[in-house]
Amino acid sequence: MKNINSILKPIVYSALMLGAVIGITSCEDVIDLDSQTGPTQLVVDGWITNQPGAQTIKLTWSAAYFNNDAAKPVLGAEVSVTDDKGNLYTFKDLTGDGKYVWGTSQADTLGHIGRTYTLKIKNQADIYTAVNEIKRVPKVDSIVYQNETLPFKPDKGPKKGYIVSFYARDFVGVGDTYWIKPVIGGKAIVDKPTNISIAYDAAFSAGAPSDGLIFILPIRQSLTIDSLYSAGASVGAELHSISNEAFNYLKQIQEQAANGGLFATPIQNIKSNVVNSNPKGEKALGYFGASAVSRLETVIDPEKARPEE
Hints:
Oligomer: single chain
Mean pLDDT: 88
């Protein structure tokens, strides 16, 4: 026969835990936080490239942290970009939604490798400027894919499918920085901050002995983001050259997006490269970037897939 203490002990323990939970939950109070709302600021989302076609610079107003409404567009601003050759490109908000566009023809090309571009935004009494340069970009040599079977049933996508990778070689010369974007169904995807993939030379950060090498495996496989691909999927890679400043800006976004858990630090605005000419005026948020783009796509053919490792 079992000792009575061995039987009662777990029952008493469970009863005490239940009572503690009931006590805690019955004493909950709703606390309304009186959070301060900061000033409304201009937010710039603009990346120009060396690809033909329209270029867009989006302007919105910042909102309070707990405001889930869509960002309000900045209307009536004067937006232009000037290169170091003296060429002026005027951006117009043709649809009244805060998206200022230059160029309508696929033959139009704004960006050129090696040139420096200055953004100017005049909004009411404020004048904002930002400067960026289009750096060199290596060729994407190939897109490869291999069979993969996950050891578990994922929340999204198939259990069996394909991991997709790209191959490219960093230029010789320390300090080239890149933004890698997966291309799915013909469209470059940047869906959330945690999926941002950036590289310093052929690795993750400065200091790694990766100059002039093929991009390391985790970066090559960053095309496979949230789930495996299926046979017949159209996939590819866009490799964007970015300045070191842009690399650091995107790295901070990565860190803020992954900032969670018990020891998370308070989030803060990331310093913008868009500067108000009036030192006493409101500061801007966001970023003005410039990139050269290398792109390659393929369709997954099961007959050409690499075997599962």
